[in-house]
Amino acid sequence: MKKPRTYSAPADAPGCGSMSDDALFAALALDKPAADKAFAELYSRHATRIWAYCRTVFGEHVQAEDVFQETFTRFLEQGQKRTAVRNVPAYLLIIARNLCLNAKRDAKDSVEIEDFHMTVNDRPFENRELLDLVNRAMALLSEEQREAFFLREYEDLPYADIASVLGITALSARLRVSRARQRIRDILQPYVIELTQP
Question: How far is CA 78 from CA 54, 68, 123, 153, 159, in A?
Answer without folding.
Answer: 20, 16, 47, 28, 25
